[in-house]
Structures are given as C-alpha cells and as structure tokens.
Amino acid sequence: MTLLTTWPDSDPGVVIRRTSDVAEIAEALAPIGVRYEQWPVRDDMPAGAPAEVVLETYREEIDKLIAEEDFSKVDVVSLHPADSPDWAETAKAARQKFLREHTHDDDDEVRFFVAGAGIFYLHVNGEIQAVYCEKGDLLGVPRGTAHWFDMGTSPSFTAIRFFHEEDGWIGNFTGSDISLRFPDFDRIHAEYAGRPV
After folding, report:
1. Per the domain annotation, does 84 fall within a domain?
2. Nearest 5°: phi and psi at 139?
3. CA 154, CA 92: separation in Å to the nearest integer?
4. Does some domain include residue 157?
5. Cβ contacts of residue 18 below 8 Å, gap of 6+?
6. 74, 56 in Cβ contact below 8 A?
7. CB of 154 within 8 A of CB of 184?
8. 197 in a domain, yes or no?
9. What are phi and psi of 155, to 5 degrees?
C-alpha cells in the first residue's frame, strides 16, 4: 500500500492529508514537481536477486525512463537482513545518513521500489509530504527539494536508482533536525501497513 501523509512543517500533530489513492497521490505531488507512478510488479523475480537480474527484469521500463529523462547511470541498491553478517551495522549507518534533511544540487533523486518499503519525506512550501513507497512505486524528487529518506530500524528493500550525473548520490545536508520531529518509518509502517514493528 502506497500512502501519502501531509503535515504542516510546524506541527506533526496536525494531519492535512492522508490517502492511499494512487491518482490522488500523483495529483498532490505533481504541483511540487515530484514524479509518482506505479510500474507493473514482477512477482516471478526471486527474492534477493542480483542487480543484473533486477535490471534485466525491468529493462523495458528502465529504457523508457532513460529515454525520457536522459539518465546516464542506473544501479540497484539492496539492503536486507540476510545480505551479510554485519547487516545491522550497515543498516544503522545507512539509515543515519539518509535520515538527515538534505538537497541535491545537480541531480533528481529517482527511485523505483522492486521490493520492500521506505518513506521519502519532502519538505516543500511549509509542508512535509511523507510518501510511503512499496514494491511497484516510482518516485522522482526534483533537484533542490529538501527531503530525507527513512528505511526504518530494520531495513528491507531493493530499489533501482537513476542518476543524471555519474558521481551518483551527493547530498547537501541542511543541518536541520526536522526529521526527528515527524513520525518515522517504523511508526507509519506499523500503523498503516498493519505489520508489527
């Protein structure tokens, strides 16, 4: 289930909007330049598939997006409990990095969720838009947009990443602690996805 929750940036206790309607989510995000769409889900792809298999499975959609947006680099990021013995340490470090509000000067942040879930929090026009993304969701955050990403305390996701720049992910951290004031992935995941934390 995809979910969009909107709060004023000054008060996480006031919910302006909460919807899981795909058309409504796309319509709400379009005015701030955020691309949201759903791609067909490929259930025949094995769990934990290597990057080459993930990319080949979604080759048609990837090639179409590259043609539309002129991306120069596409890769796969995957973080699952069974990935390695030091998963907990890797997961904690990754979460802390992306959990801080940041922007990107030279690139959009475009992600397609192949498996698992994560939340992008967009800080625009005095509001926080939290987009809970799951398998099948594509989200494109425009360069210059203040945002953060929460994968939860026990991350489990695979995503295809698209870049215009060969350097990949380069974040400019705002220094704000705003991400600490809003409901995190674990809370939203437990409340709205109906799964225990």
Report:
1. yes
2. -130, 135
3. 8
4. yes
5. 3, 4, 5, 6
6. no
7. no
8. no
9. -60, 140
Q: What is the CATH number of the domain that holds 122?
A: 2.60.120.10
Count of structural domains, the chain = 1
Count of all residues that appear for the chain in the document: 197
- Is position 60 within any domain? yes
pTM score:
0.92
* Contacting residues for 132 by C-beta, under 8 A, at least 6 apart: 1, 2, 3, 4, 5, 117, 119, 188, 189, 192, 193
Per DSSP, which regions of the chain are E strands? Answer: 3-8, 17-19, 35-38, 73-79, 102-103, 109-124, 127-134, 137-141, 146-150, 157-163, 172-173
Note whether 162 and 69 are within 8 A (CB).
yes
Domain containing 85 equals: 3-192
- Walk along the chain (197 residues) and give the pLDDT tens digit of each residue: 799 999 999 999 999 999 999 999 999 999 999 999 999 998 877 777 899 999 999 999 999 999 999 999 999 998 888 667 777 888 888 888 899 999 998 889 999 999 999 999 999 999 999 999 999 999 999 999 999 999 999 898 999 999 987 776 777 889 999 999 999 999 999 987 664 43
